[in-house]
TrEMBL record:
EC number: 4.3.99.3
Biological process (GO), any one: tRNA queuosine(34) biosynthetic process
Stated name of the protein: 7-carboxy-7-deazaguanine synthase
Binding site for Mg(2+): 57
Cofactor: how and how many bound: Binds 1 S-adenosyl-L-methionine per subunit.
Domain Radical SAM core, chain residue ranges per copy: 35-229
Family, per entry: Belongs to the radical SAM superfamily. 7-carboxy-7-deazaguanine synthase family.
Annotated source species: Pseudoxanthomonas indica
Class of this enzyme: lyase
Function: Catalyzes the complex heterocyclic radical-mediated conversion of 6-carboxy-5,6,7,8-tetrahydropterin (CPH4) to 7-carboxy-7-deazaguanine (CDG), a step common to the biosynthetic pathways of all 7-deazapurine-containing compounds.
Positions with a binding annotation for S-adenosyl-L-methionine: 54-56, 89
Alphabetically ordered keywords of this record: 4Fe-4S, Iron, Iron-sulfur, Lyase, Magnesium, Metal-binding, Queuosine biosynthesis, S-adenosyl-L-methionine
Pfam families: Radical_SAM
GO MF annotations, alphabetized: 4 iron, 4 sulfur cluster binding; carbon-nitrogen lyase activity; magnesium ion binding; S-adenosyl-L-methionine binding
Source lineage: Bacteria, Pseudomonadati, Pseudomonadota, Gammaproteobacteria, Lysobacterales
Amino acid sequence: MSAVDPTEPAVPPASSQERLKLTEIFLSLQGEANAVGWPTVFVRLTGCPLRCQYCDTEYAFYGGQWWDIDAILAEVARHGVRHVCVTGGEPLSQKRCLVLLRRLCDAGYDVSLETSGAIDIAEVDSRVSRVVDLKTPGSREMARNRLENLPLLTARDQVKFVLCGREDYEWARDMLTEHRLAERCDVLFSPSKSELAPRDLADWIVADRLPVRFQMQLHKLLWNDEPGR
């Protein structure tokens, strides 16, 4: 690995087709979705085409280092845990992410992918649990939602809404019904930090008896927004 120009695009050198640009690899507790609480290795890829106004990982937009996929697998193995989460940024913005996901599954890990929902998920290995965002009006990136992904979701997957207020909640509730999301997979509703009181969101879900899972991000409760945690 070597330092790179932070403005360099996430395109690997022509001499290597088995590399990815990474911001970090670290061991922590999974803070959300179905694997919440499990010790998990996070592989954070660099780069994202979206600019959600509440993003908490802007440091992953640029920079990073090139890693051979073999080196990524070796670093994951060094931590000695079963769960691996590939995240970003937007990991699918690097095409070789699909290779990494397949190889992690082949190695026997319980693999999840955190994706913005703006990129086609059809080619993601079927063994991967795909955690797919649906961007709300409050995110300012709603136009980037790739709704063609929704029919591809299975019981292994999850849809996540980060909600900034009552308007977002009502929009998400309508999407839940229109696309019958709870019949496809688990649906997660999360309050955007500092924009929506968790208690308010919890009360709305209970009042409407929505078939969704309320969640707060465990890692933020424990470590705030500290990178690498």
